[in-house]
């Protein structure tokens, strides 16, 4: 018998929709009582070996397969929680792709809800983007073809169905995606004005790629950070009923476990950090006060390594950092995320502190690393997280021999089509998401400047599909070095303006005429309508006709 799904929670929008009429206080009383009776129990157990998700790579013909299905997992000792996962019980394998090599991804939906798979941060044709316009129905298998063409980076994949993205990600549908660029793919020609899209950016130099830690699960570690709300019997709750930002859980899981510990014989680790949470921002730092060396952001390597005390990641943002592991070990924690001038820091999660990951030296009595369970799939390779050659590797970050320049970037200017994006409440530019409306038309290879303004006193962030952008300024000031690289998602501080330099790539082989999305990636906001449509090299009229053809123009 299939495991029971968590009982749905009724949010504010659901209350307003119920019955299509106003509900009296008396009618709401049973509902409100049931909401208040759901008691969250923080889980803080420690010492669990960090699971290393298995690698899923395309076979010789470029094919790979994902199946979304129900499962169970234990976040509370000896208590089962109903979950969803890709090719397993919770989360999914780490997909590894190569720049310039075609991919055919077969996606099977074994859940009872329509779903999609969005390749977050990948520059792909609209038909392959995994937006809400053409969902995969229960029991259906969909094959999607694309060829990744952008610099090496850390990405992720997750569902993007209309109005139910948050609940599917919360249950466990998410995974990391690593794009390699080992073949030295030549960049395309930049446009005459000097700006270029990420698809036209040069590959990192070969000496950079070999100098960086690159043994998956050994010195190159995926770190997927999520928070959740659990009851004592393991039921997974939805977002906090009175929360402005969405789900802020008091249980943090790393790669799907509470109290994660990773044991290593390496002195230097590369951590690929992904904020896979729904609303929570993290202020990631080492408890010892030692610095983090940031080498990459959402869209690839930075121009040069940046040493920081802490790095803040809002939902869907990624960063690659180098960490030195001393004999006594070191702990990655979250505290004091930089939320800007937020009206209520506590209500936005700004006062919470969590242990994210303990790093121990091998032989110190810590837990041994493990590999997450997943059903065998064609093209899947499992690494057990143990050192491949028994060597400790470089003794320090300085001993890696990194060159002074990690990557080179196209010129950025403030010329181009000007766009204004005002974020307020659950709307962008005063409009809620409408599946039958195109908000703007863009032209590939033409520079655009998007000014994104958070008009609220609470947090938002902003994600653009089919784009890796550069931040021109935040409140008139240049971005800090750790934010100066390619980005696809960015935190938007309250009452601040941010200007983004965007150039969209072209996809000449895409004839779907479907649009892309821009939206707040706080998932409650996204599902509640804080999202819009845009096209690239496609007229609004043609896009609307395509949407009507999918049956999702509503």
Automatic annotation (TrEMBL):
<dbReference type="InterPro" id="IPR045087">
    <property type="entry name" value="Cu-oxidase_fam"/>
</dbReference>
<dbReference type="InterPro" id="IPR001117">
    <property type="entry name" value="Cu-oxidase_2nd"/>
</dbReference>
<keyword id="KW-0560">Oxidoreductase</keyword>
<feature type="domain" description="Plastocyanin-like">
    <location>
        <begin position="71"/>
        <end position="182"/>
    </location>
</feature>
<comment type="similarity">
    <text>Belongs to the multicopper oxidase family.</text>
</comment>
<dbReference type="InterPro" id="IPR011706">
    <property type="entry name" value="Cu-oxidase_C"/>
</dbReference>
<dbReference type="Pfam" id="PF07731">
    <property type="entry name" value="Cu-oxidase_2"/>
</dbReference>
<feature type="domain" description="Plastocyanin-like">
    <location>
        <begin position="421"/>
        <end position="537"/>
    </location>
</feature>
<feature type="domain" description="Plastocyanin-like">
    <location>
        <begin position="247"/>
        <end position="326"/>
    </location>
</feature>
<dbReference type="InterPro" id="IPR002355">
    <property type="entry name" value="Cu_oxidase_Cu_BS"/>
</dbReference>
<dbReference type="Pfam" id="PF07732">
    <property type="entry name" value="Cu-oxidase_3"/>
</dbReference>
<dbReference type="InterPro" id="IPR008972">
    <property type="entry name" value="Cupredoxin"/>
</dbReference>
<feature type="compositionally biased region" description="Low complexity">
    <location>
        <begin position="363"/>
        <end position="380"/>
    </location>
</feature>
<feature type="region of interest" description="Disordered">
    <location>
        <begin position="363"/>
        <end position="396"/>
    </location>
</feature>
<protein>
    <recommendedName>
        <fullName>Multicopper oxidase CueO</fullName>
        <ecNumber>1.16.3.4</ecNumber>
    </recommendedName>
</protein>
<dbReference type="Pfam" id="PF00394">
    <property type="entry name" value="Cu-oxidase"/>
</dbReference>
<keyword id="KW-0479">Metal-binding</keyword>
<dbReference type="GO" id="GO:0016491">
    <property type="term" value="F:oxidoreductase activity"/>
</dbReference>
<dbReference type="GO" id="GO:0005507">
    <property type="term" value="F:copper ion binding"/>
</dbReference>
<dbReference type="InterPro" id="IPR006311">
    <property type="entry name" value="TAT_signal"/>
</dbReference>
<comment type="subunit">
    <text>Monomer.</text>
</comment>
<dbReference type="InterPro" id="IPR011707">
    <property type="entry name" value="Cu-oxidase-like_N"/>
</dbReference>
């Amino acid at each position: 018998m299939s495991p029971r799904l968590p009982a749905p929670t009724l949010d504010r929008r659901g209350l307003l929709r119920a019955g299509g009429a106003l509900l009296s206080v008396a009618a709401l009383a049973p509902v409100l009582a049931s909401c208040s009776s759901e008691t969250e129990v923080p889980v803080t157990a420690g010492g669990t070996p960090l699971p290393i998700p298995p690698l899923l790579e395309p076979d010789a013909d470029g094919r790979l397969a994902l199946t979304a299905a129900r499962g169970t997992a234990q976040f509370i000792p000896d208590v089962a929680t109903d979950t969803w996962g890709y090719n397993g019980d919770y989360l999914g394998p780490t997909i590894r792709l190569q720049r310039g090599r075609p991919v055919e991804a077969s996606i099977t939906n074994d859940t009872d809800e329509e779903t999609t798979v969005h390749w977050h941060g990948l520059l792909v044709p609209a038909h392959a983007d995994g937006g809400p316009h053409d969902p995969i129905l229960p029991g259906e298998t969909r094959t999607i073809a694309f060829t990744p063409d952008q610099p090496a980076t850390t990405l992720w994949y997750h569902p993007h169905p209309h109005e139910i993205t948050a609940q599917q990600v919360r249950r466990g549908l998410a995974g990391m995606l690593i794009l390699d660029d080992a073949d030295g793919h030549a960049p395309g020609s930049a446009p005459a004005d000097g700006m270029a899209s990420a698809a036209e950016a040069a590959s990192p130099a070969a000496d950079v790629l070999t100098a960086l830690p690159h043994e998956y699960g050994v010195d190159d570690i995926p770190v997927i950070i999520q928070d959740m709300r659990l009851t004592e019997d393991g039921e997974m709750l939805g977002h906090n009923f009175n929360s402005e930002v969405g789900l802020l859980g008091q249980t943090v899981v790393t790669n799907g476990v509470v109290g994660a510990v990773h044991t290593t014989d390496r002195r230097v680790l590369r951590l690929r950090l992904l904020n896979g949470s729904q609303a929570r921002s993290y202020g990631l730092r080492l408890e010892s006060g030692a610095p983090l060396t940031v080498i990459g952001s959402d869209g690839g390597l930075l121009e040069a390594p940046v040493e920081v005390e802490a790095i803040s990641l809002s939902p869907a943002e990624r960063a690659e950092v180098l960490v030195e592991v001393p004999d006594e070990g070191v702990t990655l924690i979250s505290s004091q995320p930089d939320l800007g001038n937020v009206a209520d820091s506590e209500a936005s999660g700004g006062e919470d502190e969590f242990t994210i990951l303990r790093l121990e030296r091998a032989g110190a009595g810590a837990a041994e690393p493990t590999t997450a369970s997943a059903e065998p799939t064609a093209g899947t390779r499992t690494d057990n997280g143990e050192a491949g050659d028994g060597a400790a590797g470089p003794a320090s970050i300085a001993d890696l021999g990194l060159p002074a320049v990690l990557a080179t970037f196209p010129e950025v200017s403030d010329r181009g089509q000007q766009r204004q994006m005002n974020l307020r409440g659950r709307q962008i530019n005063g409009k809620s998401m409408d599946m039958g409306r195109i908000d703007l038309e863009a032209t590939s290879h033409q520079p655009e400047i998007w000014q994104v303004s958070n008009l609220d006193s609470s947090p938002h962030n902003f994600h653009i599909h089919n784009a890796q952008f550069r931040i021109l300024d935040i409140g008139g000031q240049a971005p800090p070095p750790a934010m100066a690289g390619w980005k696809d998602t960015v935190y938007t501080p309250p009452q601040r303006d941010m200007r983004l330099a965007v150039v969209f790539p072209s996809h000449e082989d895409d004839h779907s005429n479907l649009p892309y999305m821009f939206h707040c990636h706080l998932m409650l906001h996204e599902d509640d309508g804080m999202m819009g449509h845009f096209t690239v090299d496609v007229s609004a009229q043609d896009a609307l006709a395509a949407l009507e053809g999918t049956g999702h123009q509503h």
